[in-house]
Amino acid sequence: MIRPVLACIDPYKAAEEFAAVGWNIDFSQPWESGDPLVGVSLCGNSVLLGITEGYVPDNQLSHVGCGVEIYMTVPGGQLKQIYENHLVLKPTALMVQPWGDTAFEVKISGYQFMIAAVNSCLSGS
């Protein structure tokens, strides 16, 4: 299993953005712990939200997430609801991709995600 650590200026604020569109907050370590980190997940896919301090130079903050897209799969029967939950973030259209998966793309806290159902049917059957 791969669980990326996404550098965020404020991982707690970023976690709120994920939670607002239906992701679970799995754990949250306090800033004072010396390792401020928040784990979020959606349908068994999880990412860690860490800090930029010490990892991303200040003059590179505008480039955080640039060139990376996180591809994740969810159950076909849940894809439409997950898409609707993300509408506030202005995702791309939900559509069948050339390779057969049904997916949409959305940017959350500066990171690009492609959320897909493998060979899905939007009706959930």
Total strand segments: 8
Task: Tell me the major beta sheet.
Answer: 4 strands, mixed
User: Going by CATH, what is the homologous superfamily?
Assistant: 2,3-Dihydroxybiphenyl 1,2-Dioxygenase, domain 1
Using the coordinates above, name the CATH class. Alpha Beta
Mean of residue pLDDT values: 93
- Which CATH architecture would you pick? Roll
Please characterize this protein's 3D structure:
With 125 residues, this protein is α/β, with parallel strands linked by helices. A hairpin with a 7-residue loop joins strand 2 and strand 3. Helices cover 16% and strands 35% of the residues. The strands form 2 sheets. A 4-stranded mixed beta sheet has the order 1-4-3-2, with helices on one face. Strands 5-8-7-6 form a 4-stranded mixed beta sheet. It has a single domain, classed as Roll (2,3-Dihydroxybiphenyl 1,2-Dioxygenase, domain 1), CATH 3.10.180.10. The longest helix is centred in the N-terminal third of the chain and has 10 residues. The C terminus is likely disordered. It is globular and about 45 Å long.
What's the arrangement of secondary structure elements?
Layout: E1 5-8, H1 11-20, E2 24-29, E3 37-42, E4 45-51, E5 69-73, H2 76-85, E6 95-96, E7 102-108, E8 111-117
Parallel strand pairs: 1-4, 5-8
Antiparallel strand pairs: 2-3, 3-4, 6-7, 7-8
Q: What labels would you give this structure?
A:
125 residues, alpha/beta, 2,3-Dihydroxybiphenyl 1,2-Dioxygenase, domain 1, four-stranded mixed beta sheet, 16% helix, globular
